[in-house]
Amino acid sequence: MFAKQKEAYYNECGGIAVIVYDGSNDKKVSSTKHTVMVISVGECGNLDMITLRKNGRKDWSLFYCEQGTMTFEKTTVYPGQVWIYPPDVPQTYLLRQSDNTTYHYLHFTGNAVHEVIDSLGIPTLTPLKAPKDAFFEIFKKIKKSSVGDDGLSRVRTEYYTLRLLSLLSEESPRISKKNMMLRVTEDMSHTYPVPYDASKYAKMFSVSVGRFNHLFKEIMGTSPLNHYIKTRMENACLLIECTELTIAEIAQRVGYENPVYFSQAFKRQIGISPSVYRRIHHK
Prior knowledge:
Helix content: 40-55%
Structural class: alpha+beta
Order of helices and strands: HEEEEEEEEEHEHHHHHHHHH
CATH superfamily of the largest domain: Regulatory protein AraC
Number of domains: 2
CATH class of the largest domain: Mainly Beta
Distance between the termini: 43 Å
Number of helices: 11
Oligomer: single chain
Number of strands: 10
């Protein structure tokens, strides 16, 4: 599947080289007692390149566009904007030499990064506005302090990285919890045929699975899994009412390989079996 994605991007972007990383050459992420620890920092640009990381990275990835444009997950990032990938999230980003792009990257980890980003209300996987001059100056300080391997250099790097994140928090619009969950339910309405994955949604907001489950139930009044099943069954009802597909075919369409298990889940959710539902609605 990933080979097909690589070919699709190559064709779509006019033959730009597609570089696929499997993570084997990434600098290894070690455990740390520090709140934040920089893995690597640098700059790049002025080239044609599509980067695909199907498994993402084990650390956090922050990209700052200084000039030109970049494209992350088919979303354009302009000068003075930032894009953040949480760990283990697939990455796809594009550079065009004709855009004369220069960008800076920061890969970091830490024992409390999730909590820091969550508490600061910094969204991920979306363009973020950065205060250009101040942000760039702190980026340079991170580069300078990360060269040293002594205790003072590590403390300085940690301080500057936290300062960088605090600047993003000051510039980022606050996203209400309700709007956060609406993003989740919108995604569920398109992806319900695939197996439910709570970690996917937790990563969208840089929180733990437990925290995500709590937030979802607090806002939506039900668990995310129950909502996912409800979405499946609502679509199953539409297929039963509007098509001549068999129950087994409908089961597969909404994500169930076993039609017996589908029928049991349908009855628990709707109150009657799929076959009875069809008889009622086909009269």
